[in-house]
Specification:
This protein is of the alpha+beta class. The chain is built from 2 helices and 8 strands; from the N terminus they run βββαββββαβ.
Length: about 120
């Protein structure tokens, strides 16, 4: 199992979902409070394992309801996704990958590790 790691900076909070192998699966947006950050983690735990995939790199792609993984392509041909929830919208972003297949494997990894626990903080 992976871990959610909360980071605090100046009274604002974000989190990383780290896979069991230590790789960061996604980085969250910045939240104004720890409670909102924790709510986002709870929603991700509840929905990320069954969320659909919307591939905006395809011509005339079909829009699907949230929660979902929306795939994007950068100007230099790399791929990343954003995780979009039905309650809070766009809450997390993946790293960029040179191949879409690598990105799809990362989505599957996130689906299997989204119910991870919160890292212990001292």
């Amino acid at each position: 199992m992976g871990q959610y790691v909360i980071i605090e900076n100046g009274g604002r909070y974000c989190y990383n979902l780290c896979a069991s192998n230590g790789h960061v699966l996604v980085n969250s947006i910045v939240f104004p409070s720890r409670d909102e950050c924790l709510k986002s983690i709870d929603e991700m735990r509840d929905t990320a394992s069954t969320a659909g995939i919307e591939d905006s790199t395809e011509d005339a792609f079909d829009r699907i309801p949230s929660p979902k993984y929306r795939i994007y392509e950068t100007m230099d041909g790399k791929y990343f996704f954003r995780f979009i929830t039905s309650m809070a919208g766009d809450v997390a972003r993946s790293h960029e990958y040179p191949k879409k297949e690598s990105l799809l494997r990362r989505i599957e990894r996130m689906r299997s590790e989204c119910d991870s626990s919160l890292a212990r903080q001292d």
